[in-house]
Amino acid sequence: MKNRRYVISSAAALAGAAMLARRSHAGAPAPLSAEERAMHALNRLGYGPSPADAAAIAEHGAARWLDRFLAGQFEPRRLPQPAALTQRLAGLEVLALSQAELFGRYREAVKAAREARREKVQGMAPEADALNAVRDKVRPLVAQAATARIARGLQSPAQLEEVLTEFWFNHFNVFVGKGPVGVLVADYEQRAIRPHVLGRFRDMLGATARHPAMLLYLDNAQSVVAGFEPPRRGRRPEAKARSPRGLNENYARELMELHTLGVDGGYTQRDVTELARMLTGWGLDTRKALFGGRGDLFQFDPRRHDAGSKTWLGETVRGSGQAEGEHALDVLAAHPATARHLAFKFAQAFVADDPPASLVQKLADAFRASGGDLREFTRTLVGADEFWSREAYQAKFKTPWQYLLSSLRALDLPLNDPQPLLAALAQAGQPLYGAQTPDGYKTVAAAWRNPEALTQRVQLATTLGQRSGVSVDQLSTTLGASVSEPTRRTLAAEPAGQQVALLLASPDFMKR
């Protein structure tokens, strides 16, 4: 505790030194040096430098290393994966199970919960028994999903793929705590997000729309034509009360407001309702889980679909079953408002909380010209002068997830037990897969830069620094040009045993 108080007070001094450094560089900004560009790439297009990165930069030179790094990041399948990462991922059952099998695990959990209620374990309320029964079945699969994400972020050489997966998962957020979503979240990331981060936006949009995690999270699996009555054959007496009763607009609203057009995208409440009608019948075939089946769960049920004509975004849409929803996704993916919305959000996440209008326009133009090709979209970002500007350098404040990953990479710490790390994320307010609302986690500093959050980071810095055994000289070498001279001078005057934690708690390291 004494060490943590010391680090907190000394971190404040480092913040003052950083502020003076910024003032002393007022005036015309100098272009980034080759070393600064290399660190900028590692921090924005990955989760920060590792000792191996620093060694490679020193061996090849910063400019040559950066050219190789950027070329490789856009071809992630060509980058050899570390054997340790491959083995860890191969041992995670959740990545191998089909959607039907995963949903079957959830059904088993619900069944166990019912049995717990009946048994009424002495000294515990039935509700608590049921909750524990579900958690015992679901928690291991959620933990495996989190282990896969953190292992890839820490060890994968395809760092751009990892930060893009984080961005697009957050864009198409689902909440692990809503019913069966927890057992499906790994499959959602593995199949609906990750394969498309350098592919076509339309493909990702369709993959998320049809995935059971999204269908359940935003309730589209419950959305049916008004007056729909499911077949009575084989139904339990209580099934009628749980059956879908009508239109649910949750997904249609978020599809336009968050996933595509944006809140100012020019649509009306009627457009939301009409889109929801177009998407009725998009649901799940959960019988596969009942009978021990395999495969995907998405099913279009024409009996649940509203086959009437709709007027949506000024267009008359005739009844055509599933094709209506696919047409809607086509229109939304190609809409100019979608290009603007995605361009702003992408520039905000990767360049600045208040991104340059010129960059947003470049990204929007690239999105439209390429037909929503996310590889070209990302190339446009990386090729833009605004991305490499002095103003953009260390202008972003790390989220708790980015801070944790960059700390582990900089200290070269092995991923032995992920659970304490995931607990630290939850304590910092960013539990993995834990954003409850559809807009996901914020990427701006205002969401994360507060006294309580900074204190938590200092505590984590102290813990990790003690675990690592790395000297401040080694850490400074790894971080290279991202550590300012005022910070280096301030650290040199501090006790040796506190220097690593202080560097991790410094403003320089909290920025990216």
TrEMBL record:
Record keywords: Signal
Protein name, UniProt field: DUF1800 domain-containing protein
Region forming the signal peptide: 1-26
Family annotation (InterPro entries): DUF1800, TAT_signal
Keyword Signal part of the UniProt annotation: yes
Superkingdom to which the source organism belongs: Bacteria
One family name in Pfam for this protein: DUF1800
